[in-house]
Amino acid sequence: MATNGAGDKEYFEQQRQLLINDVAASLENVLQNINKLNRSLEGVIAVGNEFGQVEGLWSQIENIMAKEPEKEENKDAKEGAAEGQ
Questions:
Q1: Cα distance between residue 80 and residue 40, in whole Å
Q2: Region Disordered: what ranges (predicted)?
């Protein structure tokens, strides 16, 4: 019986080592995939940053377009007041 216990212990140790190796390989795979994801996200951010100047330009145009009707309304109001006098 003593030899059977030693054989079970050896089998357990082998199986444990196989599982440890499997877990280590899986963690390495996860690390590689996280690094790929990080590089992809950096690429997306870089592309997004390239549109920053375009967005700024469109914001300026939008602000200018929003101010134009106010100037025309003020001009019309002043002309109406001048005609009323």
A1: 60
A2: 65-85
Q: What are 28-73's pLDDT values in tens digits?
A: 999 999 999 999 999 999 998 888 889 999 999 999 988 866 566 6
Q: SS3 of 23, please?
A: helix
Do 58 and 28 belong to one domain? no
CA 2 to CA 28: how far, in whole Å? 39
The predicted structure's pLDDT at residue 45: 93
Q: Which two tokens stand for residue 46?
A: 């870089």
Q: What angle do CA 29, 31, 32 make, to 5 degrees?
A: 65
Domain that holds residue 72: 51-85
Q: Between the CA of residue 5 and those of 1, 13, 22, what are the distances in Å?
A: 6, 12, 26
